[in-house]
Amino acid sequence: MTTSTTAATALRVQRIKPSPSTAAAQRVRELKAQGLAILDLTVGEPDFDTPEHVKAAAVEAIRRGDTKYTPVNGTPQLRAAIAQKLEQRHGLSYSADRIAVGGGAKQVIFLALMATLDTGDEVIVPAPYWVSYPDMVLANDGTPVVVPCPEAEGFKLTPRRLESAITDRTRWVILNAPGNPTGAAYTADELRALADVLLAHPHVQVLTDEIYDEIWYEPGRVPSLAAVEPRLNDRVFLTNGVSKSYAMTGWRIGYGAGSASLVAAVNTLQSQISSCPSSISQAAAAAALTGDQDFVRDCVAVYRGRRDVTVKLVEDIPGLSCT
Ligand SMILES: Cc1ncc(COP(=O)(O)O)c(C=O)c1O
Fold it and tell me: Which residue's CA is the nearest one to ligand 1's atom 7?
């Protein structure tokens, strides 16, 4: 038997690359450590601090002794807080067994793909996309099917493009709205038109990544597919988290709501991977979701101001325009 000092990596690792955004963020950290002044636009990370009442809830959890394993799918308190948010925002009703909690939306999305993809299963990824989706699909033996969504179409998937991308092997469509990197979001009518296509293809599930749902500058709330078309409710895996809305990127709490069978499969994987997310972070996330929401409103007002300045600056550059 021969031994090797270099780890032989599996094909699934050879197929993917390290997350480009986290690699770029690391480079920024290194340059900042050298004293360079850098404006970091690499990852979607609020420059605000986590609200004080959220930090206090975490400290309280430590003092109470909530420092042990929790249920695999998160504490009942956190799942109740998530269910309450989905009910209040979208009128969607999720029982506790239809909610999965994980170490960030990123982990929840990864686990959902891991739980459902077999070799060669296809996942439709509208482009421009968050850099992680195709690699997450590849890491789980799936095939990303990238569908270009040009600026002329608002960087959005159209029913026609969706229809022509669906094959017998399609397992998922990923819909990220408001989307990273373009900010594009779908109106309820646009979602209904996509839903009409999806209703004709019952083998296709939809992973909605709603992590930026609070960062919304239009009146009302950004529409969510599961609410727009209740007949798709069990085929939609709605993912979200506290990272962006509550400046909690380091706490690593995200969640997914969908069919009980998918959530059970995600939980089975999680039980073998991390057992559960951090008990302390879960207490903090529950406080964020149920507590005072002024922080969110204040941050969005600041983001809106920055957005307005940026759009104007870009449009003042000859030859450039900004959707
Ligand atoms: C579109 C999108 N989805 C998910 C995530 C991951 O969020 P979390 O911190 O909850 O893992 C990000 C983070 O940048 C993102 O941009």
Answer: 105
Question: Structurally, how many domains does the chain consist of?
Answer: 1
Within a domain: 195: yes
Residue 26 falls within a domain, yes or no?
no
| Residue 22 within a domain | no
Among 7-11, 49-53, 292-296, name the one with the lowest average pLDDT. Answer: 7-11
**Cβ(26) – ligand 1 distance below 6 Å:** no
User: Does residue 4 register a pLDDT over 70?
Assistant: no
In a domain, 149, yes or no: yes
Write the pLDDT tens digit of every residue in 204-244: 999 999 999 999 998 899 999 999 999 999 999 999 999 99
Could you report the per-residue pLDDT of 107-151, keeping only the tens digit for each? 999 999 999 999 999 999 999 999 999 999 999 999 999 999 999
CA distances from 156 to 44, 152, 227, 232, 299 (A): 20, 9, 19, 20, 26
259-286 tens-digit pLDDT: 999 999 999 999 999 999 999 999 999 9
CATH number at residue 263: 3.40.640.10
Q: What is the pLDDT of residue 323?
A: 83
Q: Is 139:15 a contact under the CB 8 Å cutoff?
A: yes
Using a 6 Å cutoff on CB, does residue 130 contact ligand 1?
yes
Residue nearest to atom 13 of ligand 1 (CA): 44
Q: Between β-strands 122-127 and 143-148, what pairing exists: parallel, antiparallel or unpaired?
A: parallel
Q: Is 22 in the pocket of ligand 1 (CB under 6 A)?
A: no
Q: Which domain holds residue 156?
A: 52-290
